[in-house]
Design brief:
By secondary structure, the protein is mainly beta. The chain is built from no helices and 11 strands. The strands form 2 sheets. Strands 2, 4, 5, 6, 9, 10 and 11 form a 7-stranded mixed beta sheet that branches. The protein has a 4-stranded antiparallel beta sheet with strand order 1-3-8-7, with no helix packed on it.
Length: 123
């Protein structure tokens, strides 16, 4: 099955930017939907953004709209999450997930998950 590896997390001050990467091994994202979720300790996993590989349709959570941009690079079989104007409330472990069916804001609809990458935003 597909394996996903996230990278790009780190420490950043409020107002700064980070770019997260999600690379798939063993196969391409063709016909997949790829989503980003985040989870802070003690909180439920929260939808951030998703992209449909074919056609590039995207959907963003209201909390990140206008600040985060999801994109794909077919040559690298990689999905990115460009995060700008970061806030302390964005602090969480960020997870990449893939579905072979459709875009969804619900975590349970995604069958493949990466290990997560930590994003910490200081005030």
């Amino acid at each position: 099955q597909v394996q996903l590896v996230e990278s790009g997390g780190g420490l950043v001050q409020a107002g700064g930017s980070l770019r997260l990467s999600c690379a798939a091994s063993g196969r391409t994202f063709s016909n997949y939907a790829v989503g980003w979720f985040r989870q802070a300790p003690g909180k439920e996993r929260e939808f951030v953004a998703a992209i449909k590989w074919s056609g590039g349709s995207t959907y963003d959570a209201d909390s990140v709209k206008g600040r985060f941009t999801i994109s794909r690079d077919s040559a690298k079989n990689t999905v990115y999450l460009q995060m700008n104007m970061l806030r302390p409330g964005d602090t969480a472990a960020y997870y990449c997930a893939a579905s072979n069916r459709w875009i969804s804001t619900t975590a349970r609809e995604y069958g493949y998950w990466g290990q997560g990458t930590q994003v910490t935003v200081s005030s």
